[in-house]
Amino acid sequence: MLHNTKLKRSLIARIVFFTGLIFVLIGFAFLLGSQAEVSQRYIFLALLFVLSGIGIAFFAITLNKRALYLFLASFSILLGIFLFLSALMLFPFPFKQAWPLIAVFSGLALIPAGWRKYRMLDIKFIVPSFTFIALGVFLLIFSFHIVPFKFTQFILNWWPLLVLLAGVLLILLALGTKTAHEEPDS
């Protein structure tokens, strides 16, 4: 009976903390949004992503759910922060130019998901994470016009490099999935 009461108090304390955190974030977001004279809908969308990410993370950690929930939480929070900074015009690029950051956010969100699943940085999550981050950075180079040619021109000229990189990625994934007790073939 005493143990059950402690569990209920602990759960109530977590819910109160989580609710307070939500109110602080909502108030902060709308206060900044009203001062910066930006669209309240844009602020609300960004806040919705952040709050959904926090909610998913809360349930993923509290209820000991799978790594997928932690990935979704991390991705939602990163996307919400990006949208919030864009709404406040603190990020100097429009979304149509900075969209490759979604791939970077996906790669970054895989890291805590892999850590949650394996309790260490495992190659099964590190290789895809690095691939998404590299893909996002690669696309950002074309999106921000850092190179003097277009993405389509690059693909037409350098498509064999993409095949080579796909092969290297597959080899790394295959090597990473071998168990520790397997001996390499001689």
Label this structure with key terms.
186 residues, mainly alpha, flat
Can you describe what's shown?
- With 186 residues, the protein is mainly α.
- It has one domain (2-148).
- Helix content is 79%, strand content 0%.
- The chain contains seven helices and no strands.
- It is flat.
- The N and C termini lie far apart (62 Å).
Uncertain spans, ≥5 residues at pLDDT below 50? none
Helix/strand order: HHHHHHH
Q: Give me the Rg, rounded.
A: 21 Å
The first-to-last residue Cα distance is 62 Å
Estimate the helix proportion, in percent.
over 70%
| Largest sheet properties | none
| Mean pLDDT across every amino acid position | 77
Whole-number count of domains: 1
**What's the count of strands?**
0
Binned strand content: under 5%
The rough form would be described as flat
Structural class: mainly alpha
How large is the count of helical segments? 7
Helix-strand layout with pairing:
Blueprint lengths: L1 H34 L4 H23 L4 H21 L7 H4 L2 H18 L4 H21 L7 H26 L10
Overview in brief:
The protein has helices spanning 2-35, 40-62, 67-87, 95-98, 101-118, 123-143, 151-176. The chain has 186 residues and is mainly alpha-helical.
